[in-house]
Model the fold of this input.
Amino acid sequence: MMEMEDKIVRTLDAMEHPENFTKEELDVLLGDKECVRICRDILDSREALARRYATAPDIKAEWQLFKERQGLCQASIQPKKRKRMLYISIALSVAASVILFLLLRPSIPQEYTVFSADLEAQVISIETKNGMHTLHIPRGMNKLLVLPDSSRVWLNAESTLQYPESFDGKKQREVYLKGEGYFEVTKDAEHPFMVKTDALKTQVLGTSFNVRAYSGNDTQVTLLKGSVKVSDRHNNELQLKPGEHTDGQLHKTSVENSTGYRAWTDGQFYFDNVELIEIMRELGRWYNVDIIFTHKDIMQERLHFQAERSDSLQDILELLNSMQRVKASIKKGKVVVGI
Done:
């Protein structure tokens, strides 16, 4: 029983303060549907009780009950104590008035910024140093790159790829990725291809796969064709088959539609049962706009959503609103998401 109570307390905390938990912790806590249902009932009860008290408080009845609890209405109060009790009652009256004011005043909406716009000019750039190219793709753009071995890489918005001018004389073909890239690797059994990120290494001979590595909590590899070996910084490793996916902690799962992970290379937004906060961050990255939530509890809502990247931000938000799960709008150049 205590274990369930502890889980409910942690789940409530996760629903109200998701920024205090890692993505993995949120997945575990919010994955228990029964526990989440109980927590939602608790939160709904709290809100209903607060609304009921704030809209029509019976001040006279509450004050009378308050005086009775304090013993101010008892006839047994001695005359010599009445003066002192009068001062106390006045002080308590002032305190009660302050509390009622705080309860009855309009609540100030809170804002939770989950993505911030970059005010600098968004341009594709490439630098070369010591035989290594560093290609940076800004927000709102993507690019197809052909590597020296004829392998092809599609780079998503806000991504950086480091790769050599030539793979000649190297035992293996290594590149470093920050962001998201879809790879179609030219086969060369004698020279394995390696994609390195901050958290994982993905080694292949010749295959098609998607690597996402925007941050430690947003790292994943999805295999579409062939076979890859994925390892972390502690040399733990696993092998993926087509249709399999792993996160930064090497938790392997099967995916029903692995091609959805490369939909962005075809100019589409494709989200299959993805948390709303991740969907909005992706929109923020593509349109380079601030994303602000007004309610924490909707950040973990999971949606199935598909749209064209060529559409305007306004059109995307209207399509999102048509699902009647959230309300998103543009206010003063920022996207505000509420209910």
